[in-house]
Amino acid sequence: MRPCPAESARGRSGRQSGPGSCPGDHPSDPVNQALSESLRFDMRPFRILLIAGEPSGDRLAAELVEQLRPRLIELGAQPTPETLPRRTALPPEFFGAGGRALRQAGAELLCDLTPWASIGLFDVLPRLKHYYRAFRQLYQAAVERQPDVILGVDYGAFNLRFAAAIRRYLRRRQDWFHPWQPVLVQFVSPQVWASRPGRAAQMERTLDLLLSILPFEPEWFAHHAPRLPVRFVGHPLVDRWPVGASSVHRPSTAGAPRLVLLPGSRPDELRRHGPLLAATWRRLRQRWPNLEGRCVVPDPSLVPMLRQTEWPAEVPVEAGPAAPALCRADLALTKSGTITLECALAGLPAIVFYKTAALTYRVGRHLVHVRHLAMPNLLAPEPVYPELVQDQATPERLAALIEELWLDDARRLRIREALQQVRARLGPPGACARAAEAIVECLRRKPTGLPVPATNARVLPAATLARAA
Prior knowledge:
CATH superfamily of the largest domain: Glycogen Phosphorylase B
Helix content: 40-55%
Distance between the termini: 62 Å
Structural class: alpha/beta
Number of strands: 13
CATH topology of the largest domain: Rossmann fold
Number of domains: 2
CATH class of the largest domain: Alpha Beta
Mean pLDDT: 82
Strand order of the largest sheet: 3-2-1-4-5-6-7
Low-confidence stretches: 1-28, 30-41, 448-469
Number of helices: 19
Shape: elongated
């Protein structure tokens, strides 16, 4: 005889079950009422709370939503042991914090954190009230709407605190009357291997799954947080740069390089990097009067801000993906960050720079434990991109490095060859699809808070940070 759902559920919890334990037999039994309520919840659509606080994370979250939606519909249609579907046929609901890309992907935006994106304590302080307001709003929405998955996309400082707050809430209310057990996932690990490694212990206590996009991270976490399930899914940028896109034919120019200027995606970055790039451009124009260039920022709202920094009129500013400009360029002047990987996937030689608040830099020097900021320099056999940080990043030095690189054909060829090895280490295309599969598998294995078996940390050959540390 087929056991009733309540009897199966009680068996998993260690409670005694007996005759007449099906829902409805004892309507006055509070445990039975809680079970009936839990079963009713199973017929709602899947709900996913996402938090993306930066333009790059917003785009990544949108790509992940597109991969998750059909997989969650398929999972909901699969029968349970009681021959009922897991969920209703309604499409899954996505809601949370993001930007334009996430909204276009069909998510309900409760707040937009992308205009307040910043790095460093002293840049964050003036915006604390915005972060606090968004944190409370998202926390309240999570408690009221009880999503099946809480998914942080990059934005580690905010997302790890949010996941920890949800975990504390769940531990205080873990009983029959509070059946909510969401899966807590972080997509894109904070760079704890570079700074403040103690955060790995918090991640181990809080997260159900960490989706890694860098090949050396699973091995690092295996040593520093062995109970944290980590899965390397590959880097999402590989999908945006298919094989062959990095070998685009670049017509030779009349003695001068074609430059692409990449000041950043945050308002603070534009305020510091805009004048630096403008002054560098003017020096290079003295050397090459026929110099061509263009600047790219990810969002149209940043264009007026950049033009307020005495930006040279002959350098157009484009808003949107950087790929078209990278393919037309010979060299790049780029701030450090994810954009350096895009330059690497484009096979584009570059000079990397970064400037931050003076106090942030002084504090960061004692917290950061890697030798390079640019990710291609960590992934390549040896550093490929020159880096100028803080006081070293001057118009004179940037212009001199551009001139040296442009006049050395053999060096640019060696850089392009090294960048091919960087691409190979980032994994095959399909990172967001693999991430979506991992989340669905986590849901399938943990429908009622059951523990998730640790994933295989060595999906691809992992490398250590010995040469970078």
